[in-house]
Amino acid sequence: MPLIHTLNNISKEGLQLLKADYHLSDKAEDADAILVRSASMHEMEFSDNLLCIARAGAGVNNIPLDKCAEKGIVVFNTPGANANAVKELVIAGLLMASRDIIGGIEWCKENSEDEAIAKDMEKAKKNFAGNEISGKKLGVIGLGAIGIEVANIATKLGMEVYGYDPFMSVKNAWMLSRTVHQAGSAEEIFRECDYITLHVPATDSTKGMINARAISMMNDNVVILNYARDSLVNDDDMKIALESGKIRYYMTDFPNPKVMHMPNVIATPHLGASTEEAEDNCARMAVEETVDYIENGNIRNSVNFPACDMGKCSAVTRLAILHKNIPNMIGQITSALAKDHINISNMTNGSKGKYAYSMFDLESKVDVGLVSLLGKIDGIMRVRII
Questions:
Q1: What is the mean pLDDT of the chain?
Q2: Given this chain, do its domains 1-82+274-304 and 83-267 carry the same CATH topology?
Q3: Which of 119, 151, 161, 291 has the smallest set of CB atoms within 10 Å of its CB?
Q4: How far apart (Å, rounded) are the C-alpha atoms in residues 88 and 262?
């Protein structure tokens, strides 16, 4: 009877996918799996029962990945499940930055008691006219699930789109519109584009990537859109650029005390993936990943262990082993199985940085003694019989 603990409100669209023998637990220490959205888990202690954590969303900054890996806890995320929601907010940001829609709305509110508003607006509207985005250059930094959606729809809106991502997957490359110019560097986008939108994770190499040096390469009156991560922008350098007029608008989904006291900032309260549809999609994917791992040992969309998929378990026994990515690990495992005269009918193995995962479909049952013996091999974090 697998026990599932939820740290945040998880959409019922996802939870209803849990089978009858799955139960929700109020206690994290009893759970086999935890479903989480934004709650911070860095101070949590994890029990030995915990098999996996599924983040209903893409970012995993709220989860201690290495700590989980060392305890043999697989961390999943749900890439692409909220891509459409974020894409739509980015397009709204483009339109709000190019046309002074907010200024126009405020004027209407301020003049709501004016009997001559219909006449006066004809004079006032020139103050909020703005520009069209068609024909302008948009730079998309990061061509993952969201970046590709933004790039593709921007081409349909008549924009000249530049995309940059040195780590773009083959799958994403096939999905990207052929009309998108693939830039050779972020610097090319800084130099060429009128609008620049960020769609990269927060890593050591991306934090503060929009800084004084990057801004110095940009065109005057450029617009920066950040609906990805707050730490991608150096707030102090952004403030100087906005005050000087180098940057025309900073569109962000991450308000903070510094940002909210800068001129020409249009901030939203982290709305990017907050649509009902996105929350449903993320919850469904998180639950599906969790159930497949518990029942079959398959790993899809893990951020701390490699992808491994052997389909539905139909063997007498499936052995799933999380271990360090070190030499002769497979040899030690197969030798232990051979000593017990256990034949392997199928197997798979993958690695991701310091960590690896191996699954073995076996033609006979495995006793507790062998599991204990395997668990004592140096570098093995978890052995599981499925």
A1: 96
A2: yes
A3: 119
A4: 25
